[in-house]
Predict the 3D structure of the following.
Amino acid sequence: MSTGTTTSEISISTTTLATPTPATSALERVDATTLTGLLRDPDAVTVLDVRSPGEFEAMHIAGSYNVPLQMLGEHAAAFAARLAHQEEHHRNHQVVLVCQSGARATQARQHLAGVGTANLHVLDGGVSAFAAAGGDVVRGAGRWAMDRQVRLVAGSIVLASTLASLALPKARFLAGGIGAGLTYSAISNSCAMGALLGKLPYNRGPKDPDVAQVLDQLPDASSTQQDSSTLDSRA
């Protein structure tokens, strides 16, 4: 083993759930403290926030990039190609995926791993855990997190259909349907209701971005190298 082990390598190794293999290394997770350490070297890590633009605007990790989950799923290969450039130019480059709790980030990891992206990690506890740990976050207009919105809508439908069933017995089937949907959501680690709510103007932020704009916001390895060379020449 080389003695020139980097800080990033040390940080990630402390969060390994099992002895890593090529098939399982992408399953690693990181906590807020580990991510804070990685962010001390911005060139060593790319943080992708897969929540809706509205949630991202309300609060996000400083230096993170908003790539909504649905967009990432539809264009996983394009995002994987962009991230691959970073990995080619920065040894041991890591990609940390974040959301509100970790569920959407886990889905995003599956999308990217499916097209060959390596060094993928999910932030335990999501953005809220990072903020609670004293991490550097940017706060904007207050919006409810998606999981909270889902609980409100699902709970309201169940309550309304249960009350309605006192006069219309068949209304109870609507409550049962919501229960079945939530059960499937947990088993499949997906959320159709969350995807629908994410399309509302409330959750889209000031402007609904297109995939080209989102790709362009990600760091370009060549420009990062040029910036580093400029800084070195000034030193």
Notes: Residues 89 and 221 are 6 Å apart (CA to CA). Residues 1-27, 221-235 have pLDDT under 50 and may be disordered. The two ends are 32 Å apart (CA to CA).
